[in-house]
Amino acid sequence: MKKSIIYFLLLFIPVANNADITDFQTVKNATFTTYNLLNLAENGLSNDVFNFAIKGFMKLGNEGKLANKNIITIVDYSQSSNVKRLYVIDLQNKKLLFHTYVAHGRNTGQEFAKSFSNSEGSLKSSLGFFVTEHPVIGSHTGFGLLINGLEKGFNDNAERRSIIFHAADYVSECFIKNNGRLGRSLGCPALPPESNKQIIETIKGGTCLFIYNDDKDYINHSTLLK
């Protein structure tokens, strides 16, 4: 059995039965069990998006690109900005640690995220897999977290563009109530001020971040989703 499957089993299945099953069926059952255990469907995250996230997570783990293989963060930009669409999941302990709001870029869309870019000055969000780095203090953003884009052409300019996690006052239910939608960033995945620091401290230091949208160009060309 491949190392990736063994590692996956250690994360998702406490005890392996002696049943004769294929690697594919093992992975399928494991992801389905975890997805249901955490009630992710009830919290708005589709099984397809979760499976995409786990597929990339496993590849990055096998390539040695993750210093922390317990935590994964999923930002689902296919959902409305008026709902909680950020998920921080502890895979080892099978816990949904955070489920909250997250903003997309100003030029990415209004309530819904529709247009994405990897270019400087675009004021758009980027899609794909990232690895988290270390916290920083920005002159305008305050306490934030550097993220390194791992997919060429989709998000590998993230550091050059200063795309980080940071808090923003426009990421709140009050803003939604007053404006009909969440506020928008300059391209960063901005977080609610009250949970920003706690989330950053949890996911910093080499964890996997997956920012998703049902964008055909990304889905068809991402090497980590194949």
Describe the 3D structure.
With 226 residues, the protein is of the alpha+beta class. The protein has a single domain, classed as L,D-transpeptidase catalytic domain-like. The protein is 29% helix and 21% strand. An eight-stranded mixed sheet has the order 3-2-1-8-4-5-6-7. Helix 4 links the parallel strand 6 and strand 7. Helix 1 packs parallel to helix 2. It is globular. The chain starts with a helix and ends in a 5-residue tail after the last helix. The N terminus is likely disordered.
Please tally the helical runs, counting DSSP H or I stretches of 4 or more residues. 6
For the report, how would you describe the main beta sheet? Answer: 8 strands, mixed
CATH class: Mainly Beta
- Low-confidence regions: 1-6, 13-23
SSE class: alpha+beta
* The CATH H-level homologous superfamily: L,D-transpeptidase catalytic domain-like
- Kindly provide the radius of gyration, computed on alpha-carbon positions and rounded to a whole number of angstroms: 17 Å
Overall morphology: globular
Q: Share of helix among residues?
A: 25-40%
The beta-strand count equals: 8
What is the CATH third-level topology name?
A: L,D-transpeptidase catalytic domain-like
Provide the CATH architecture: Beta Barrel
Which series of helices and strands comes N to C? HHHEEEEEEHEHEH
What number of domains? 1
> What's the arrangement of strands in the largest beta sheet?
3-2-1-8-4-5-6-7
State the end-to-end CA separation.
20 Å
